Amino acid sequence: MKKIVLTRIDDRLIHGQVVTAWLKHLKADAILIVDNDLAKNTMMARIYKAAAPSDIELLIKTIEDSITFLKGAAKPQSIFILTKTPEIIETLQSAEIVIREIILGGMGANKNRRQLIKNVFASDEERAAMSRMLAGGTRISYQLVPDDRQIKVEKELLEKSK
């Protein structure tokens, strides 16, 4: 199985903070974007690959392909997982991918989301997924960049902001 060095939820996936701060901090070999739609959109996939540093392998896979990849014993890698929603991570966990900690980045506002903390907005379904993961022992916190203080997300916070 691959070594997961960080799992992050961020609508923007790859952007300046990820490239400059998190990758330097993590020393990851590869970025795995888990997104069914993006994995099928070759034009957008090319744009993300162009945004990634040339010395980091960028993989864009469906959830199912990500599970197979993460369980694979091929070459050992340190993987930085990026997703847009907590439900994707919950699906990975239900397939026995061990993810003990999640860092929230930007989750933008939309008509279905309400503010959780700072620039993190979550829908009822996303809050429910995070609550289930917390109950299962996964640590969730908000941290924009590695040098920032982590803000823990706890069940009370998910319920309080409803």
UniProtKB/TrEMBL annotation:
This is PTS sugar transporter subunit IIB. One of its GO terms (cellular component) is cytoplasm. Keywords: Cytoplasm, Kinase, Phosphotransferase system, Sugar transport, Transferase, Transport. One of its GO terms (molecular function) is kinase activity. The keyword Nucleotide-binding does not apply. The lineage of its organism: Bacteria, Bacillati, Bacillota, Bacilli, Lactobacillales. It is found in: Cytoplasm. GO terms for biological process: phosphoenolpyruvate-dependent sugar phosphotransferase system. It comes from the Bacteria. It comes from Vagococcus allomyrinae. Residues 1-162 form the PTS EIIB type-4 domain. The keyword Cytoplasm applies. PROSITE patterns: PTS_EIIB_TYPE_4.
